[in-house]
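Re: [ENG-882] Designed sequences occasionally contain unexpected residues at chain ends

Forwarding the minimal case from QA. Structure tokens:
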């Protein structure tokens, strides 16, 4: 499953599993220019692993 969203600074997305645990992803800063970048705040229960994509991809090749 994939979902593509546009979010503005201050907006968030909440992901909930079947046990009711939630992961909240909130945009806290956005920068324009040629390279668009965002700062995200991710809040999740301690038992969730949060891994940056470049590290995750490197460990699963």
């Amino acid at each position: 499953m994939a979902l593509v969203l546009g979010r503005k600074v201050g907006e968030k997305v909440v992901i909930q599993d079947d046990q009711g645990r939630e992961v909240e992803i909130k945009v806290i800063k956005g920068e324009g220019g040629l390279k668009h970048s965002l700062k995200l705040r991710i809040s999740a229960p301690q038992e969730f692993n949060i891994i940056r994509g470049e590290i995750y991809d490197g460990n699963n090749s």
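QA comment: On inspection the terminal residues look reasonable. The chain has a mean pLDDT of 89. Proposing we downgrade this to a documentation issue.
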